Automatic annotation (TrEMBL):
EC number(s) given by UniProt: 2.1.1.130
Organism field: Aerococcus urinae
Identification of the protein by name: Precorrin-2 C(20)-methyltransferase
Pathway assigned in UniProt: Cofactor biosynthesis; adenosylcobalamin biosynthesis
GO molecular function, one term: precorrin-2 C20-methyltransferase activity
Lineage, top ranks: Bacteria, Bacillati, Bacillota, Bacilli, Lactobacillales
One of the GO biological process terms: cobalamin biosynthetic process
Family: Belongs to the precorrin methyltransferase family.
Keywords: Cobalamin biosynthesis, Methyltransferase, S-adenosyl-L-methionine, Transferase
Length: 235
């Protein structure tokens, strides 16, 4: 396989959500790059893909700090992109693993921005947490002429408020540290009974919270927690 960078989505957690295309690339590339959010912490993305990665394939793990400090993040993106460029210059094909989908709130985007003009890049789509969540809840995300919005809980209160007012279905990701703010916004629009949360979707530790009318939050929910607000026709 010629030198090429693959951004591969490994899905939300359950190995059954890995695509055949992803498994095909795991077996073909020369080097696997995996991210971790904390130093010394095992990579969840790698744990999902590991059974399908040949034992002889080198795996390089890099820590991507979970911080709002843009300078710190940029420095790490540059460092990893430089390491990848060195491998690509040696004719190696690389795979960067990412939870969910590489095109949805993924670190891979920043690596592609740095390398895409000089090296061939291919993105292998993955299933997102909210797609798996909708399937588990048997909840249609969007139909007919309805609108659909996806945004992170870290965005501005005004933008979340606007989305709750205007869209038919709203997905809010990374809600753990922002539950109080989001619940207050749901109260403003009287939408608690139309909101659902899944923590660690498709994983063994999965928790489902439906109809949040009297729910006051759960400090134990995982960082990997997503909310879907699906408005009824009467809302």
């Amino acid at each position: 396989m010629p030198a090429k960078l693959y951004g591969i989505g490994v899905g939300p957690g359950d190995k059954g959500y890995l695509t055949l295309k992803a498994i095909e690339k795991f077996k073909a590339v020369d080097i696997i790059y995996v991210p971790t959010g904390k130093k010394g912490q095992a990579s969840l993305a790698f744990s999902i893909a590991e059974p399908y990665i040949p034992s002889h394939t080198p795996v390089k793990t890099y820590h991507f700090p979970m911080t709002k400090d843009q300078e710190v993040k940029t420095k790490q993106w540059d460092q990893v992109a430089h390491a990848m460029a060195q491998d690509l210059d040696q004719g190696k094909s690389l795979a960067f693993l990412t939870l969910g989908d590489p095109s949805t709130y993924s670190t891979f985007t920043y690596l592609e921005e740095r390398l895409g003009q000089d090296y061939p890049v291919e993105v292998v789509a993955g299933i997102t947490s909210y797609q798996a969540m909708a399937a588990a809840l048997q909840l249609p995300l969007v139909i007919d002429e309805e609108s659909f919005t996806v945004l992170p809980a870290t965005t501005s209160t005004d933008l979340i408020r606007l989305s709750l007012k205007s869209a038919d279905t709203i997905v809010i990701m990374k809600i753990k540290r922002h539950l109080k703010k989001i619940l207050a916004l749901l109260d403003e629009e009287n939408l608690r009974d139309q909101a659902y949360i899944i923590s660690q979707a498709t994983m063994e530790e999965e928790k489902v919270y439906g109809d949040l009318s009297d729910w006051q939050g759960d400090e134990s929910i995982s960082y990997f927690s997503t909310m879907i607000v699906r408005k009824s026709k009467e809302a």
